[in-house]
Specification:
With about 325 residues, this protein is an alpha/beta fold. About 30% of the residues lie in helices and about 20% in strands. It has a nine-stranded mixed sheet with strand order 1-2-3-5-4-6-7-8-9, sandwiched between helices. Helix 4 crosses helix 5. The longest helix has 19 residues, at about 10-30. The chain is globular, with a radius of gyration of 18 Å. The two termini are about 30 Å apart.
Length: about 325
């Protein structure tokens, strides 16, 4: 990704830089070997399948790698027909993916009220979009905390001992979801989005940068400069990638998404990922998109409030790209 603030003179120059930078970032994330073939069998199985007023939700378990089993909610809205075009939905530091479908984690048949538009999968279903909600590693059902609170520190440190990062492992799980959807045969992988807020937005950003099978990227309240956010205050250990700032800043990471559609969401009062540095990084990101021949395919949406998702603002910006 280095040097930062490089100026590009052609689409080809951007493409050459992206190919090299994507390899470097994948190495920094510690997932080069994980992303290689062959891969561990997914062995998916269904835990339950239920109807709600919006459509059908199915809970599915699959193996990302030997020794690690993960969970998703597969959400198909009424009227959706295969091949499905879906968004992957990732919660941040919370009690887990149950938030995406608005149910209590103690009892997944009990609806709960969700603050801050964080019921991502239901938001997709309301718009007629199939959704896949992922339980991120070390959160929710993947947490060692008895109350499902995030428990990232110890496994993030252990990941470093193995030459990995917690963020890289989460990105690998996203890639395995794509493998699963491909194996089903009823999903259209030419249109596959990803969205998330906070820690889910961070995974969405980096997954979009290194996984080219993702076509539409919608991170929320996770974009600012690294130096002025995770480098300026306490953050969970799962956010950190050793050596990242030696290679580039957040605009450089998201520049690897170009020319794919990208909508970045910020909160005007977000104290965790400050708006001012985010706006400066976005100006640099616009230069990269313009050099890649896609000046209108990245947008910065600013919600009137703090650290949360802004569903109407975000989807108003993304849906024109999604419906092209």
């Amino acid at each position: 990704m280095k040097p930062q603030n490089r100026r590009f003179n052609s689409v080809m120059e951007v493409s050459v830089w992206q190919a090299e930078a994507r390899r470097e970032l994948t190495d920094l994330l510690g997932i080069t070997e994980l992303l290689a073939e062959p891969r561990f069998p997914l062995a998916p199985r269904s835990l339950w399948k239920r109807e709600n007023e919006l459509g059908t939700i199915e809970k599915i378990v699959f193996c990302s790698e030997d020794g690690f089993e993960n969970r998703i909610y597969l959400c198909l809205p009424h009227g959706a027909r295969p091949p499905y075009r879906a968004f992957l939905c990732l919660q941040g530091h919370s009690t887990g993916m149950h938030t995406s479908i608005g149910v209590d984690w103690h009892d997944e048949t009990t609806p709960i009220r969700i603050e801050g538009d964080r019921d991502f999968a239901l938001g997709c279903m309301r718009r007629g979009i199939p959704a896949v909600a992922l339980e991120q590693r070390y959160m929710g059902e993947n947490s060692t905390d008895p109350e499902h609170k995030p428990a990232c520190y110890q496994p993030a440190m252990c990941a470093l001992l193995r030459g990995r990062t917690a963020l890289g492992e989460r990105i690998f799980d996203v890639d395995r979801i794509i493998d699963y959807l491909a194996s089903r045969g009823d999903f259209d992988l030419s249109r596959l989005g990803i969205l998330g807020n906070s820690g889910g937005g961070t995974t969405s950003m980096f997954a979009g940068a290194v996984l080219p099978r993702l076509t539409h990227i919608l991170p929320s309240c996770s974009f600012s400069s690294f130096a002025d956010s995770i480098g300026a205050m306490y953050h969970c250990s799962c956010n950190y990638i050793p050596g990242l700032l030696c290679y580039g800043e957040s605009a450089d990471v998201l520049g690897l998404i170009a020319p794919r559609p990208l909508v970045v969401v910020s909160g005007s009062e977000d104290q965790i990922f400050p708006l001012g540095p985010a706006q400066r990084q976005f100006a640099r990101l616009q230069e990269i998109y313009a050099a890649a021949g896609a000046p209108g395919r990245c947008r910065h949406v600013i919600g009137n409030g703090g650290h949360r998702f802004y569903a109407d603002d975000a989807w108003n910006a993304m849906l024109p790209f999604w419906n092209e």
